[in-house]
Specification:
This protein has about 200 residues and is α+β, with helices and mostly antiparallel strands. It has six helices and seven strands, in the order ααββααβαββαββ. The two termini are about 35 Å apart.
């Protein structure tokens, strides 16, 4: 729950309240309260503004996890899958975008403009014929400037990067945008390896 709270917004509100209190105290001739209000309020306000400008919002959860899926996550999810899920579903500070460093190391982010944008995540049960059910973390990217062929070529490297114990599978789908034009969406499935 705490990871869903924006520290930037919290500090901005607190800074405004303390600064306003200091200003009110100054107008009413209360020097002690005035000093406290300005001494703490202005720096907190500036800190909140700085955090707000460096804030990356949590990724959208595309569908809630069922109780069966939660049990599967607990039994099979790798530490990397758990860390990824926690990192992209909370406010982050001091980064350009979710997974910006990972995409850069994978060669999927030559420039900030070309970087795929994480638009949401979900968890699912991955089923393959003759194999037991496996936990899968799905990362959905908008990737207008990185081609589908590049994603396919990097699939094995992505699996090694997020491993061990993870198989990466990319799939392509089309989704409708606000202006009804179709745009490319890439689903990156990070599937826990299950020994049968």
């Amino acid at each position: 729950m705490l990871r869903q709270i924006s520290l930037g917004s919290l500090f901005l509100v607190l800074g405004v309240v303390l600064s306003a209190l200091g200003l009110f105290a100054y107008a009413t001739g209360n020097p002690t309260l005035n000093l406290v209000g300005f001494f703490y309020g202005v720096p907190i306000l500036l800190g909140g503004a700085a955090l707000k400008s460096a804030e990356v919002k949590p990724s959208k959860i595309l569908q809630p996890a069922s109780s069966q899926l939660l049990k599967l996550r607990e039994a099979q999810a790798t530490p990397t899958q758990n860390q990824l899920r926690q990192d992209v579903t909370r406010f982050r500070y001091g980064i350009s975008a979710h997974l910006d460093e990972a995409l850069e190391k994978l060669g999927m982010s030559p420039t900030d403009e070309e970087r795929p944008v994480l638009t949401g995540i979900c968890e699912e049960v991955f089923q393959s014929e003759g194999q037991p059910d496996a936990y899968s973390l799905v990362l959905r990217f908008q990737s207008p400037l990185i081609s589908w062929e590049t994603w396919q070529a990097k699939q094995e490297k992505i699996g090694r990067f997020f491993g061990p114990g993870v198989i990466a599978v990319v799939s392509q789908s089309e989704i409708q945008s606000e202006d009804q034009k179709e745009r490319q969406s890439i689903d990156l499935r990070l599937i826990a390896e299950v020994k049968s």
